[in-house]
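Design request, tokens follow.
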């Protein structure tokens, strides 16, 4: 399938799952939970409060070399929005500057490592992985980051 077919298909509306496409055009789904939804909200609100010169998107679709992946939370600079629009380009052909994944029970560490690489290859400057225990790992093109380019550190509970 192509992403436009997924987005426009009424059968996929209102599903309690996050939907992505793998490199073969097959649908992958992740079950939703309220705990995860809360973490998405906390991350989005934090980015909006700390980084005022951009926009926060929840469930941001991004074309990667392995299909369309959906960052749980993304922060886009005003320059990114000017170039790609608020949602007219779906999926985005380039990753926003910050992509955040909130790990759920169905995600493996291998899957998260792969997503980090895919978002970075697609142009993200930072990829954050928020684990269920509240810890957040930060990655950039050089690997795991100790200091973030945007100066936002997260502690979630």
């Amino acid at each position: 399938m192509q992403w436009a077919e997924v987005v426009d298909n009424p059968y996929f509306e209102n599903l309690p799952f996050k939907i992505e496409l793998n490199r073969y055009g097959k649908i992958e789904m992740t079950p939703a939970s309220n705990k995860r939804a809360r973490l998405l909200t906390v991350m989005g609100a934090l980015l909006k409060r700390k980084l005022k010169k951009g926009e926060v998107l929840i469930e941001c679709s991004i074309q990667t070399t392995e299909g369309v992946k959906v960052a749980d939370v993304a922060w886009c600079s005003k320059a990114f929005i000017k170039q790609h629009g608020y949602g007219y380009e779906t999926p985005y052909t380039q990753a926003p500057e910050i992509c955040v994944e909130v790990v759920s029970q169905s995600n493996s560490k291998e899957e998260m490592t792969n997503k980090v690489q895919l978002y970075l290859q697609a142009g993200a400057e930072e990829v954050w992985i928020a684990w269920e225990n509240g810890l957040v790992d930060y990655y950039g093109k050089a690997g795991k980051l100790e200091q973030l380019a945007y100066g936002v550190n997260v502690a979630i509970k």
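Comment from the thread starter after seeing the answer: thanks! The domain at 33-144 is CATH 3.90.1570.10 (tt1808, chain A).
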